[in-house]
Every structure is written in C-alpha cells, then in structure tokens.
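Good day; I would like, with your permission, to put a structural problem before you. The record follows directly beneath this note:
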Amino acid sequence: MINYDTPVDVLLDEYPESNKWLMKRRIHCTECGEPVWGTIGELIKSKGMDTEELLAELNEYLKTCGYR
C-alpha cells in the first residue's frame, strides 16, 4: 500500500484517515491546509523516526480502516 516513495498529497487524497494517525505521532502532513510536498518516507525521516517501522504501522492501521 504505502511505501517510502508515496507522495504526501497522494497519501492524503487516497487515505484521508492517515492524517489523523500521523498527527497522533506528531508528523504533520499539512501546512496552512495544503499537503507537505515530497514523500511520506522523506517526511518521517526528517522527524528522525524509524521509517520502515512507521510505514508498517501505518499500513496496518489503514487495513483496519478497510483499505487493502
């Protein structure tokens, strides 16, 4: 589903529930209502977090929301 190279704007458009999940982890995907440019992997890495671990958790969360 979501990988390191998934653009943030695509993530938010296709999986709107992801924003709430990421906000709980202090990873903000929007600035002034607009998506952050770049990929979700770059965004997570810029926060000094474990990219692989968080992407795996995000994909599991999205499965619970009904995405495959």
